[in-house]
Amino acid sequence: SRSRRRYSTHLKIFSTMLEKTIVVDGRDHLLGRLCSIVAKELLAGQKVVIVRCDEICISGSLVRNRVKYAQFRAKRMNTNPARGPFHFKSPARMVWRTIRGMVHQKTIRGQQALARLSTFEGIPHPYDKIKRKVIPAALRVIRLKPGRDFTVMADLAHSVGWKHKELLKKLEEKRKVKADAFYEKKKARMAIRAKAEKECETELAGVNKVLAASGY
Q1: ∠ CA(35), CA(38), CA(33), 5° rounding?
Q2: Angle 108-115/2-14 helices, nearest 10 degrees?
Q3: What is the pTM of this model?
């Protein structure tokens, strides 16, 4: 109908409201709290990338979460299981599926929101060179009572058949070596710059005074 066409046009206009992609580091976040916050951002038009999905946590012990996942995997179509529902084994797809259930994905708006989401295990290129953010309201150390059991997504996924845990560990070790080398170079550059600014402090006193008055 005409009203339906007009509604879809408005969605196309508002879907480009926020352009800059936010990269979220999933390490040590609680799954449900992280996903609910990300889902709201996606529906508002924000593009979000979640890295290190393998290090996201779920409250409860590994045994408890394995039992719950086994019950989940038993849910299938009786006559033809190939038609779904489909049960993912990789942490990134588990996170993606959790968020899918929070954005009403059978509507156009929900589908467009889900299209703005990307999830990854580890930190692949180019996101290893981009500043990553955390979500304080979803951090395990803030939200989970000390002493409570929790499960890391990589352990759960590995226990249900995910086969890339060791490979990911090797790739992350290589990435961290490169990141350390980059950080050392960055510190050296910052030290040289700080030294140069200190040496020119007297020459730039007038300029600094004008900048300070302007709020810089």
Answers
A1: 35
A2: 20
A3: 0.81
Nearest Cα neighbor of 40 from 108, 117, 97 is 117
Distance CA 137, CA 81 (A): 38
pLDDT tens per residue, range 73-111: 999 999 999 998 999 999 999 999 999 999 999 999 999
Query: Residue 46: helix, strand or coil by DSSP?
Result: coil
- Whole-angstrom CA distances from 10 to 39, 47, 116 are 20, 18, 17
H-helix segments, 44-164: 62-73, 91-100, 108-115, 140-143, 153-159
- Stated as kind and residue range, the H or E segment containing 59 is strand 57-59
Task: Specify the 3-state DSSP secondary structure of 173.
Answer: helix
- 96 φ/ψ angles, rounded to the nearest 5 degrees: -60, -45
